[in-house]
Design brief:
142 residues; mainly alpha; 3 helices; elongated; binds zinc ion
């Protein structure tokens, strides 16, 4: 089977890979010797710098808002950054696609929590009120 120039396969598992991929998505074999570490480091530096800049900017305006922003954006950011670093150390850095998917999923989860958490908290408070009121009524103290 002859393979055209634009088609690459992983030397370990023969899965089709793209030329620009750093590692094989199936077996994790490193296809390139971390050639894109510098652009990635720059990208991460830019992301982290804009995060710090955003928090600082908010902090001057409103401390509570800055704190909320720092936690809400910082936690997912830490998660993605930590994952990227761990995979890099293991010798199979995340592909841009994987990184994008992880970021999207993390953003969705944090957004979901942001919306769902207050609703759940509100429901819990209402439920608690009902239970307390009910309990008081049952014992005839209300
Ligand atoms: Zn492979």
């Amino acid at each position: 089977m002859s393979s055209p120039i634009d088609q690459f396969v992983c030397p370990q598992c023969n899965h089709e890979v793209r030329e620009e991929w750093v590692s094989c998505p199936v077996c994790g074999l490193r296809l390139k010797p971390g050639g894109d570490l510098v652009p990635r480091a720059i990208a991460w530096a830019a992301v982290l710098a804009s995060y710090v800049w955003g928090v600082t900017l908010l902090y001057r305006h409103d401390r509570d808002q800055a704190l909320a922003f720092a936690v809400l954006v910082g936690l997912p950011l830490c998660y993605i950054f930590g994952k990227a670093v761990i995979f890099r150390i293991q010798g199979k850095p995340l592909t841009w696609k994987q990184l994008g998917r992880t970021s999207a999923r993390t953003a969705l989860v944090s957004l979901g929590l942001l919306i769902v958490a207050p609703v759940l908290l509100g429901l819990a408070v209402v439920l608690l009120l009902f239970v307390v009121c009910g309990g008081l009524m049952m014992t005839g103290q209300f």
